[in-house]
Amino acid sequence: MNKKLFLTAAAIPVALIVPTVASAAETVTVTGQNIVNETLTVHQLPNNAIVNAYQWYYLEKVASEDGSKTSTNKPIAGATSASLKVPVEAAGKTIFVEATTTDGKKYQSEPRTINQLDLAITTPTLEGFSTSDFVAPGETVKVAGVTVTDKAGAKLTSGQITYSYQWFYQLGEGENSFTIIEGASGSTYTIPKDAIEKGIKDIIVKVKAQVGTSFVESPRSEVISISKEPTDTLANDIKNLLVNDNKYNVSDIKSFEEKIKALESKYQALSEPAKGNVSNYAVLKRALADVDLINKLNEKVDKVGGISDKDLPAYIKEIEAAYDKFDLLQRSLDVNDALYTSIKNLLNEPNDLEEIKEVRRLNLAIVNLLSYSNGISQYVPSDKDSLQGVVNTIEADIAKLSQNYRGAVQNQTILNEAKADIKKVEQFIKSFDKLSSNNTPNKQVTVAKSIRSTYEKLTYKQLKLVPDKYGQLLTAAESAEESQIATLNNDIDSYIGDDIYPINPSASSWQSHVNNVARMVKEYKSLTKASAAQIEGYDSLVTLQKDLKTAEKVIKDMDAYQKLSGVTGVTESKLNSSYTNTLKAYNKLTSLQQSLVYNAQEFLLNTPKVSVDGKVPADKAAAEALKADIAKFADVTKFTFNQLEKAVDTAAQSYKKLSSGARKYVTNNYLLTAAQKDITGVKSFYKKIQTAKEETDAAKQAKKIESVQKAYAKLPANQQHLAKEQYEALLKNQIIDENAPNIKQLNDELATIVSNDQYLVSIDKINTLSKQYSSLSSSDKKLITNYDILKAAIADVKKAESFMKTYEKSFNSNPSTVIKAFEKLTSKQVSLIPSDTQKWISEKQQGQQQTNEQALTLIESINSLLVNGEYIAGLEDKVKDIRTKYDALSAQDKKIVKNYSKLTQAESDLKKVADVHALYKVDGDEAAQKAWQSAYGKLSKKLELLYKNMYPQDSK
After folding, report:
1. What is the pLDDT of residues 439-473, one digit of tens each?
2. Rounded CA separation 842/374 (Å)
3. Percent of the chain residues topping a pLDDT of 70
4. What are phi and psi of 125, to 5 degrees?
5. 142 DSSP β-pair partners
6. Which of 36, 517, 627, 953 has the fewest CB neighbours in a 10 Å radius?
């Protein structure tokens, strides 16, 4: 209780005394009502007054020492403006205003007495309890409304009113006798939980209000009774929803639902504290949830007719699983097992016998896709279209099986591999779209090379699916350049020779030869690399093309000389110069080049005439004799090197002895000069021959002889003739290199290592051939035209050797890995694998593809454990037998048993039932009995039936 408000107000403190205004005759006029909260305003000032300040005062009486009372003025705090809202403290007091001018004069208004407050208060109203008749322990009652007014007309605000409260309860049997509730002095009062036990049954509240120094006390409120009656009744109704912990008190689900919804509405109408008194509300909440589950499952069962055949099995399975989750209490809402019976009628186990029979047939059909010969597997259908048809049929039949039995079909890896192989073969066949007989031979060979690369990567099984016509097309395309190669080789052979070119050109045939050589060079360049390697004499052909250009220049010079010699008036010196220069150019030609100069003979016979003027020298005869000797140098083929060297030396000495006048008669001295140059050139060439002869290392000598051969080919024809004897002697006496590679033999061997996509030699032989090739010089390697065969063989050897490592490491522990790796090998790679290894892999592969009858039989046995959703009689023994047989299966076979989860579920259910049975005590106390009933109540319908079947002697 706010006791201060129940005490008499204290006396007003003594006011501050201010001096009396000296000139009170001149007053200020004020308007407004003398009521609290009304506004008083200065209305008129004295004449000539300029006011700059106001102060409102209380006029109070103060007792003097002699007992008399004198008036004094007390300033009203904050009241310093021309207007004043009358405060509640002013009620019953006299007030006035004082105005002060700028020159210090003060003027006062007439005093006014403010009306006293005469307060009135209404009876308080209460709220916060659930019903109009009772308030429950724990609920909080609140003063909802009380109104305070001034009878004298003051308009009070809420901020000016201070309330205090006191709650009382009826004491004893006396009428309207109430006593104070200690500590209950707030606007709210929470009913203690034990109020009824303490005798607090009827309560009231009184409210006291204060405005300023005025007080008013309300009448008492209506009496509110404290009672548990509403919540006790609700709790009892909820209790009656149960027969026992595992059974609802229900005979009709619809009326039961209406009942619990009505109870829920009552509960929700309670205040939160009152709800706390309903201690068994969880039962009502559970009932609402359980009825909702039953209704939803009933709705799902009613919709079965609208579900497609495809989705129906899964839909029914969901319904069955949902019902299996119901415990005994929930199932008590399924009156007369109506819902359970409906679900049971929906269950229709698959025709196991027919489906397993189909699985067995499909297993055999898949295995029969393959046959084995000499340790290598291949498809029984002979081509990819036939295989595709069989695979499509098998897959369509698998799709017709129920979901559980699709997984029981074995060896589906074979199907997947078959589809992959078909796709690979189709891609290979598609590559032939780029191949056309209208393409150039070069284009055909190029495309064929790409196709061959793909062909080489096909496995043996894939290779066998390729129709023969594609192999024939590929071979034909690869050999598209063969006729061109043969023709080109013949053409080149007809144009090249060792000492002379055999074409015997003439002025009329010259251009055709030039064109033919250009054509052959162009054709060679158009060939693929492999085909070009088969062309013989191409280097000589290129040399011929160059020689034709070189010879053509000399031919033109000779023709120019002949033409010049027929022109009248040409000076001898000019003609002689033309002849000499042309002859020099001719003599620089090699034998092969000279064989192309078809007008050389005519030119050589038409030597220019030289006239000698002046005094005849005494040694003219000697000069003419020397001229005759030098003329013989025009044809060095009549000399050996030694003969020519001796004759040239003699002629040179003779020429030196001639007088200057006689030398003019040796008009063919240019022949001597040319012969001297030839001698010098041959001697230089002989040094190279000598160096090669002195080399004792066969390999090094071979390289030096190769250098000599190149040098010889570049010698002019006269020098080639003079050096020929020693040159041929060098070649004849070349040291035989026993270790020198036999290029032809290596090429021939490479050509025979593979046939019909099978290697005819071992890995060791291929490695030997590879070493032989590696030991060749770069120039010799270019001569190995079958290198592509060797290159492919080396790559295949690496694949085969890698596989053999996998085989040796994993065949015994993980044969599946080895088989998978073996299946990826190409036909040629497989041929490198030892035959006994192929045989062992084949046997293991076939062994893994056998249909496991035991696994299929177990599938049947496991499916038989349930009939229309209920376990069979003798379940425990049947499960133990199946478990023993399952554990005896191999890991691979266990994977086939796709319904294994049904076995483990049965084992789990047997354990659950056994655990509940273990709680059952025939002579057990109430706690033991209750523990068993609780566990029993949690069993699903399926397990409840299993329990009754296994332990019929247990009574509930």
Report:
1. 888 888 889 889 988 888 888 888 889 998 988 89
2. 9
3. 95
4. -105, 155
5. 127, 188
6. 953
**pLDDT for 850:** 54
pLDDT in tens, 293-330: 999 999 999 898 889 988 888 898 899 889 989 999 99
Mean pLDDT, range 13-37, rounded to an integer? 65
Q: State the Cα–Cα distance between residues 524 and 512, nearest whole angstrom.
A: 18
- C-alpha distances in Å from residue 740, one per residue of 640, 689, 702, 771, 776: 35, 21, 10, 14, 9
Candidates 689, 682, 626, 700; CA nearest to 657 is: 626
The pLDDT value recorded for residue 187 is 93
Q: What is the mean pLDDT of residues 422-426?
A: 93
The DSSP line for 217-233 is EPPPPPPEEE--HHHHH
Q: Kindly calculate the radius of gyration of the chain based on its CA atoms and give it in whole angstroms.
A: 66
**First-to-final CA distance of the chain:** 62
Question: What values do phi and psi take at 138, rounded to 5?
Answer: 95, -25
Please determine, for residue 658, whether its predicted confidence score (pLDDT) is greater than 80. Answer: yes
| Residue partners of 373: CB distance under 8 A and separation at least 6 | none
CA distance linking residue 429 with residue 426, whole number of Å: 5
User: How many C-beta atoms surround the C-beta of residue 601 within 10 A?
Assistant: 9
Cα distance between residue 394 and residue 370, in whole Å: 14
Exposed, middle or buried, 99 (CB in 10 Å: 0-12/13-18/19+)?
A: buried
* Cα–Cα distance list, 592 to 85, 181, 341, 598, 671 (Å): 143, 145, 112, 12, 21
Rounded-to-integer distance, Cα 421 and Cα 427, Å: 10
Interacting residues of 471 by C-beta distance below 8 A, sequence separation 6+: none
Tokens of 566: 């027929």
3-state secondary structure of 941: helix
What are the backbone angles phi and psi of residue 41, rounded to the nearest 5°? -135, 135
C-alpha closest to that of 713 among 546, 498, 495: 498
CA distances from 546 to 20, 349, 390, 491, 520 (A): 148, 93, 66, 17, 14
Segment 544-599, tens digit of pLDDT = 999 999 999 999 999 999 999 989 889 988 998 999 999 999 999 998 999 999 99
The Cβ of residue 751 has, within 10 Å, a number of other Cβ atoms equal to 12
Q: Helix or strand or coil: residue 861? A: helix
pLDDT interval class at 352 (50, 70, 90): low
Cα 564 versus chain centre, distance: 87
pTM over 0.90? The answer is no
- The answer, yes or no, to whether residue 166 has pLDDT greater than 90, is yes
Tokens found for residue 407: 């997984």
Alpha-carbon distances, residue 310 vs 307, 320, 356 (angstroms) = 8, 17, 20
Q: If we measure between CA atoms, which residue out of 480, 435, 425, 430 comes closest to residue 457? A: 425
Closest by CA to 812, choosing from 839, 840, 849, is 840
Q: How far apart are CA 153 and CA 114, in angstroms?
A: 12
Model confidence at 543, pLDDT cuts 50, 70, 90, reads very high
